[in-house]
Write a structure and sequence with these properties.
16 strands; alpha+beta; disordered N terminus; transferase; Poly(a)-polymerase, middle domain; Poly rna; 17 helices; about 575 residues; Alpha-Beta Plaits; Beta Polymerase, domain 2
Length: about 575
Amino acid sequence: MAARAVGLLASLPLCAQRSQVLRPIHRLLSCPRTVAAEIKREEQSSGSVETGSEGRTPKKTFSEVQKERREQAQRTVLIHCPNKISVKKFLKYLSQHGPINNHFFYESFGLYAVVEFCQKESVTSLQNGTRTPSMGTEAAIPFRSRVFNLKTKNPSNPTSEQSRVQCSIHAPPSSKKLLELLCYAESIDDQLNTLLKELQLTEENTKLRYLTCSLIEDIAAAYFLDCTVRPFGSSVNSFGKLGCDLDMFLDLDEIGKFSANKTSGNFLMEFQVKNVPSERIATQKILSVIGECLDHFGPGCVGVQKILNARCPLVRFSHQASGFQCDLTTNNRIALKSSELLYIYGALDSRVRALVFSIRCWARAHSLTSSIPGSWITNFSLTMMVIFFLQRRSPPILPTLDSLKTLADAEDKCVIEGHNCTFVRDLNKIKPSGNTETLELLLKEFFEYFGNFAFNKNSINIRQGREQNKPESSPLHIQNPFETSLNISKNVSQSQLQKFVDLARESAWILNQEDKDRPSSSRSQPWGLAALLLPSVVNSASLAKRVRKKPASERIKSLLESIKSSGPENATSTNGKRTVSTQA
C-alpha cells in the first residue's frame, strides 16, 4: 500500500446502528453537459405514476447502468467537513484540482460532502495535495484513500460566509408522517405511488452506495489489482428501501484475463499462484485477508466480522462515513444475476415496484418479515410472489423467465456453476403488456389470490409462471429462478405462513368493505393502504379466535368469491380514482 495518506484520519464515533439517517442537503452542477441527465435521473427516481408501459423511451441495460455508476464513483471523493463551512470557498478550493461535475452534503456522523469531479485525474491531484495528519501521542497509519478530512486553518476566527449548511432530509419519513401522506392521497393508486416515492432510494443515496463500493475496491486492489467490487441486491435491483443494507460482490474474474491477439509465438505465459483444495477455501482465504485490511487500514470501516463458515462466506462491517451496514462476498455471481433479473422486472411496468413496495411495507407493519434471520417470510420471497401474481394476470403484466430466455441472443447466454441463467438483457426487446388494471385492483386481488392459494400442494415458479406440484413438504415452496432445485422460502414455518394467509384474507376483506369515497369529515382518518398498515387494523387474538371458530375461514372465502363474481367494474374506475359504491 502507498505510504502517503490522503487526509487527516481523525477518530470518528463508531457506527453502532445498522443504518444511519443520511441527509443530502446541497448539490451544485458545474459541468453544463450533465444538467439534463441529472434532471432526467431525478424524474426516473421519483417513480412513474402511469399505468402500463405505453410511451416508453429506450432504457439502459443493467450492465450499462452499473458501468456508468462505477465510472462516476471512481472520480468521486468523500470529505468529512466542519459543521460550519463556506460552501462557495469550499468548492472554489476543490476546483483547483479540476472542474466539479456535481456534489451534495449529508449528515451521518458529522457533515460529509460527496464530490464528483469531471475527470479521474482531479482525484489524483487532490490526493497529491493532501498531507498525512499529525496525531500527537498516537500514530497514523499512512493509507492513501479517497476519504478526506477537511479542517479550517483558523477555526477560532470564523468568517461571515461560514455557516451551518441547511439540511433537507432525504431519509424515509416516520410511520406517522407516512400515514398522513397516504391519508391525503386522492386514490389507492395514488397511495401506492406515494409510498414508493417516499421509501425508494434517492439519487444521492444511490451514488453514495456506489462510492462506498469503489472505496472498498481501492483497498482490495492492493492485493488484486484488476478486481471490481460491485453492489448487488436491494441497492441495485430497483426495489431498495432507504436504510437498507449494502451488499457487495468482490469480482475477481477480470484478473489474469488476456486478449488472444496479444499472444504470439509458441509460448503461453501464466501467473505463478498458490493452490488450495477447493474454491470455497480460496474464497475463505481471500475474504479473511480483505477483512483484516478493512479492520486495520480502511478509513471508517468498523465492527468488522469475518463470517467465513456460512453457506456463503462474507465479511460484515459498518462503514461509518456513509452509515451503511455492509456485507462483502465473493464467488456469488448468481446473486448478481438475480439482481439484474429483478431490475428488468421493475423497469418493465411502473406498477411492479409500487406494488412490491406496498406489499413489503404491509408485511413489515404486521411483523411478517424481520431483519433478524428466522422462520419469517423474506422480502425476496414476497417480491417473487408479486412477480408470480403479475405473471398470472390476464393479459399478463410481466413475462415469465422462460419467455425472457426465448428472447435472448448469443450475447445474453449465461451459465453459472452449471445453472442456466440466460435471459434477454435488452429491455427494449421486451414487448410491453396490454394490461391496464389499476393498482387498487391489483392490491386487492393480490390478497385474494394468496389468501386462497393452495400452499399445501402447489409451489410458486416464476420461470414458467404457473402453479406446480410441490416437490417437497415445506409449508411454502418458491422455486429459486436459477438454482431450480432450491426453495428460497424453505425457512418459513407453517405458523408464519398461516399468519400471512390470515392477514391476506383480512386485508382483502377490509379493502372490499371500505367506503369507496374518501372520508370527507376527517382527512386524517386512515383508509385504503393506510388502514392496512395500522398494526391495530388486524387484532391477532380476535383473528385467531375467528380462525379457530371457522377453521376453513368459510366466511371470508365466500366473501372473496362474491368479490370476484361482482367484477372489477364495481370496485374501481379504470383510472384508479376512488368511486362511490352502489352496493349495500
